[in-house]
Amino acid sequence: YPSNDDYHALHEVDNFAWGQGGRNLFESAPINVGATGSYTITVENAAYRNNTANAPKFYYTGTFTIEAEKINYLQVQVPMVNFAVSFVLPADFTTYFDAPTFQVTASYTSGRTDQTVTMYTQRAPQYFDYEQGVRLNFALTAVNKDSEAVSLSGSHTEILPGKCYAVTYSLPAGFSVSD
After folding, report:
1. What is the pLDDT of residues 120-136, one digit of tens each?
2. Which of 19, 68, 110, 113 could form a disulfide with 6 if both were Cys (CB 3.0 to 4.6 A apart)?
């Protein structure tokens, strides 16, 4: 049964209407018996919609069909469309080195401006926009206990959206990249 809240206001947005209490959701253009309707759904988070820098971005668009007099359940998985990078230093790194700086650059082949981030501590991943063929370039610089600058750099080309890549440094071997 309708509640008292349902009689105070009618909300209408994008061809749907419902009572103030949230019940009685209905399609304002009903589907005739035996007919079908096709709808496109778009799901995105605020970071995608506002093109927020350094934030995970999620986006999905798809079309589905409904039939009159049938219940249709829609399951949607909304993927992350950018990727993230973090770096990991060995536990004893500060025994041998001071002032570590990790710089990572996403280099794009389409001509779009490369994205570069510099990190001074191991912290939350940094997010980068994805496009086919993006290349990840990274460098760790530090000063050893003899006051000598040391640098180790590398790159990774098999980048996929939705992944968080960890660049792990080890002594004395170097680095590895994993997702």
Report:
1. 877 789 999 999 999 99
2. 19
